[in-house]
Write a structure and sequence with these properties.
Keywords: Ion transport, Magnesium, Membrane, Translocase, Transmembrane, Transmembrane helix, Transport. The chain is an all-alpha fold. It has one domain (2-230). Helix content is 89%, strand content 0%.
């Protein structure tokens, strides 16, 4: 079990490293264009948005690949213990998403103030750009590995699905982590950032207090989630 989990973890990390190296080139080019066409502050916010999104995805996937094997081992003795481990492992992704999103937006708002919401939009654009490629790339890898593993295992060799005798199952499980965990995490943080930034922009028409209100609601939500997680 540990050997298989190590192989899945190694494959997932290798995929993320390759993906982030490729996306770094795209992010750099877009940041330069934003600097030239708009403002260097928007370009910096764009880069910060991509970093926060990539970091949240990595933290969530790193927790998932470690929690998977612990959950499977715990399920041998108690389903209740297995559920708690799986829940705590998933909570890492959820709290990382909300934490990185609110941290990035709050820092930019603290530096540039209410009149710098255009800069915060750059942060949202950066998160959206990275999430687009992370979700699409992870989905393509997931389905390709899934189809390949099924063709080799069930069709050609006649062994059951997800059988450990099929080496392609490792790639299939790697795809589940990079697509369903890291890719979905990037998609979620992108949506969360867009919602908060949109609410802040709408709040500016009503007054300064309404600009900060979405951040306060998000902060209260984090504390509420921490309390709920603690008593799980």
């Amino acid at each position: 079990m540990i050997e298989i989990a190590d192989a899945i973890r190694e494959g997932s990390n290798a995929y993320l490293k390759r993906q982030n190296k490729t996306l770094a080139i795209f992010v750099l080019i877009m940041a330069i264009l934003l600097w030239i066409l708009l403002d260097f502050r928007i370009a910096l916010a764009y880069i910060l948005g991509t970093i926060c999104t990539a970091l949240a995805s990595f933290l969530g996937m790193a927790a998932a690949v470690r929690a998977n094997v612990i959950t499977a081992n715990a399920a041998r003795g108690s389903l209740n213990d297995a559920f708690k481990i799986a829940f705590y492992g998933g909570a890492v992704m959820g709290l990382s998403i909300v934490g990185m999103a609110l941290l990035g937006i709050s820092v930019l708002y603290l530096i540039f103030g209410p009149e710098g919401l255009d800069v915060v939009l750059g942060f949202s654009f950066g998160a959206s750009a990275l999430a687009l490629f992370a979700k699409a790339g992870g989905g393509i890898y997931t389905k390709t590995a899934d189809i390949g593993a099924d063709l080799v295992g069930k069709v050609e060799l006649g062994i059951p699905e997800d059988d450990p005798r099929n080496p392609a199952v490792i790639a299939d499980n790697v795809g589940d982590n990079v697509g369903d965990v890291a890719g979905t995490g990037a998609d979620l943080i992108d949506s969360y950032i867009a919602c908060v930034v949109a609410a802040m922009i709408l709040g500016r028409t009503l007054g300064i207090n309404f600009v900060v209100l979405p951040l306060l609601i998000g902060a209260i939500g984090i504390f509420a989630s921490l309390i709920g997680t603690f008593f799980c």
